[in-house]
Amino acid sequence: MKIQKIKLRRMQLELKDPFQTSFGTQTEREFILVEVYGDHHVGYGECVVTSKPLYNEETVKTAWHIMEDFLIPILYDHNEIHHPDKVRELFKPIRRNNMAKAALEGAIWDLYAKEKNITLSRALGGNKDVIEVGISIGIQETTDELISVVGKYVNKGYKRIKIKIKPGQDVSTLRKVREVFPHIRMMADANSAYTLDDVEVFKELDKLNLMMIEQPLSHDDIVDHAKLQSVINTPICLDESIHSLDDARKAIELGSCKIINIKIGRVGGLTESKKIHDYCEIHGIPVWCGGMLESGVGRAHNIAITSLSNFILPGDTASSSRYWYEDIISPEVIVEKGLIKIPHLPGIGYSPQESLLDKYTLERKELFRDQYVV
Ligand SMILES: O=C(O)CCC(=O)c1ccccc1C(=O)O
Ligand SMILES: [Mg+2]
Questions:
Q1: Which of 374, 358, 371 is nearest to 33 (CA)?
Q2: Residues in the active site (predicted)?
Q3: Tens digits of per-residue pLDDT, 48-69?
Q4: Is 86 assigned a catalytic role?
Q5: Where in the chain is the domain with CATH 3.30.390.10?
Q6: What does the pLDDT look like over 149-198, one tens digit per residue?
Q7: Is 3.40.50.2300 the CATH number for 5-117+352-372?
Q8: Which residues are known binding-site members for Mg(2+)?
Q9: Is any ligand 1 atom within 6 A of the Cβ of residue 138?
């Protein structure tokens, strides 16, 4: 692949419903769309970074800066890139900034698959035709509202229900949901809102037959998580704490989790996601694909990686219409009876619509190879 041009767009979509987690409420989704132009095709990637550094340390502005001033020059420093796995290696000298790296790498994966005329799923080694999907429900004002939202998505057929918790809206809330829905596959996500002082909260949650508890403790911890896992039966799933294959290996060795949520952006790309997937498969650790309120482009990447065999548990890749009034891809992502069919078109398999991209673009910049190579 020879990259001739890269286009960055800062975009914003309005969420149908505000999304509240233990670290804040989002009403809009600002993100960066990456277009990588080869000789015959365009590869698309989404930078799943958020406006504020609340989930991780990156922001839309830092990711743009890192891409424009450091990562794109590294790509242009190479005449050709023969395989997208190479990108991870090229970006290695730049520390962290995983969402910025993943956005460019994802676009290059899409371009690679399009040039080979195969689906991204196949390029990654996926072997499923359909994937199971769950839903992530934000913190609601009242428990009655939560119960009604849970009911809505259970009726739509979602394969598991994830409920965001925070101190004060945890045990009694989930107990009431469990009373109304005794048999659904249900889990909680704390987004790092607790410490080991809250162990009693987790002993109570342990009685609710949850599939897992996601990231209960600090975003940078794997030691306290191991202590917590040793006193509860419910599997702990790590999200924020895992940035690489090495992190995953250490967490598994320590017993800090029994499940891993793989987010392509958080771990720096599809190549690293695959590595974590393969390592977890060998070690009997199921994985699932987390979401970052992606537009259709990021969602398409999530769907492709979920087609790999060890993505055993339903992911957070819900339908486009769950988030957006209109998505930027055609067709939109459709979930039927909790399932998504892996698309058959080459690359990500959904087509970004130029007119919709333009409609939701706040700022754009084109970066040409010749600008950098003199
Ligand atoms: O539906 C989705 O995209 C998942 C939403 C979600 O849970 C989430 C959204 C933004 C930031 C962090 C998280 C998370 O998984 O912790
Ligand atoms: Mg999470």
A1: 358
A2: 164 (proton donor), 263 (proton acceptor)
A3: 999 999 999 999 999 999 999 9
A4: no
A5: 5-117+352-372
A6: 999 999 999 999 999 999 999 999 999 999 999 999 999 999 999 999 99
A7: no
A8: 189, 214, 239
A9: no
- CATH 3.20.20.120 in the chain, residues? 122-349
Domain covering 122-349: architecture? Alpha-Beta Barrel (3.20)
Contact by Cβ (8 Å): 187, 163: yes
Active site residue 263: yes
**292 CB within 6 A, ligand 1:** yes
Residue of 16, 17, 21 with the most ligand 1 atoms within 8 Å of its CB, for mutation: 21
Is residue 35 helix, strand or coil? strand
Kindly give the distance from the C-alpha atom of residue 293 to the centroid of ligand 1, in angstroms, as a whole number. Answer: 6
**Ligand 1 atom at minimum distance from 189 CA:** 16
Distance 337 CA to ligand 2 centre (A): 23
Location of structure tokens 């290695």: 92
Tokens of 67: 């891409």
Question: What is the ipTM metric for this complex?
Answer: 0.99
Question: How many CB atoms sit inside 10 A of residue 201's CB?
Answer: 17
Residue to mutate, 20, 59, 158, 292, ligand 1, most ligand atoms under 8 Å from C-beta: 292
Measure the CA–CA gap between 261 and 182, rounded to whole angstroms. 25
Other CB atoms within 10 Å distance of the CB of residue 144: 10
Positive or negative, the Cα torsion across 301, 118, 74, 274? positive
- Centre of ligand 1 to C-alpha 273, Å, is 17
